[in-house]
Amino acid sequence: MEKVIIKDDQGRTFEFDTFEKLIEYANSCSSMSWLPDGYTWEIIDESKDRISVEWCTEDVLTQCDWLTKEQAREVLQMCEHRHDCTIGINWEFIEDIACDMFPIHSTKQV
C-alpha cells in the first residue's frame, strides 16, 4: 500500500492513504492553491516495509509425499504454531513436524 505524505516548510505534515485520495482531495478544492508554495510531496510504498513468505499444502506434499492433503493441512498448521522465529520454517522443519505427527507413514530415517 502506498502512502502520500505532504510536508510544508513549517514542519506540518498531511498524509493521504493513497495517491488517488490526494487527487480526490485536490479535485474537491475550489482552487488549485490547495498546495501552497513551500510544500513538497513524496509517495511512500508501505508494501516495501514488510515481507512474508507463504507455505502451502502443496509444499508440504512435495516434501512429505506420504501424507494426504488433510494431513498436509494439519502439518502446515502445526508448523505455523510451533516454528521458531529465529529459524523460521524450512523443508527440514516441515518434514520433522510431519514425521512427529504421522510417524507410521514416515519414510524418514530415525
Features:
110 residues, alpha+beta, 2 domains, elongated
Describe the structure concisely.
The protein is 38% helix and 15% strand.
Q: What are the SSEs and their pairings?
A:
Blueprint: E1 2-7, E2 13-16, H1 19-28, E3 40-45, H2 57-63, H3 69-82, H4 91-101
Antiparallel strand pairs: 1-2, 1-3
Helix pairs in contact: 2-3, 3-4
What would the average pLDDT be, to the nearest integer?
79
Count of extended strands: 3
Q: What is Rg?
A: 25 Å
Given the helix and strand composition, which structural class is it? alpha+beta
Query: Treating each run of at least 4 consecutive H or I residues as one helix, how many helices?
Result: 4
State the shape: elongated
* Major sheet description: 3 strands, antiparallel
Helix coverage percent of residues?
Answer: 25-40%
- Order of strands in the sheet with most strands: 2-1-3
Low-confidence stretches: none
Give the ordered list of helices and strands: EEHEHHH
Indicate the proportion of strand residues: 5-15%
Domain count: the total is 2
Rounded to the nearest angstrom, the distance between the terminal CA atoms is 47 Å
Please provide a written account of the structure.
- The protein is of the alpha+beta class and 110 residues long.
- The protein has two domains: 2-49, no CATH class; 57-105, no CATH class.
- It has helices at 19-28, 57-63, 69-82, 91-101, and strands at residues 2-7, 13-16, 40-45.
- A three-stranded antiparallel β-sheet has the order 2-1-3.
- It is elongated, with a radius of gyration of 25 Å.
- The chain starts with a strand and ends in a 9-residue tail after the last helix.
- The model has no long low-confidence stretch (mean pLDDT 79).
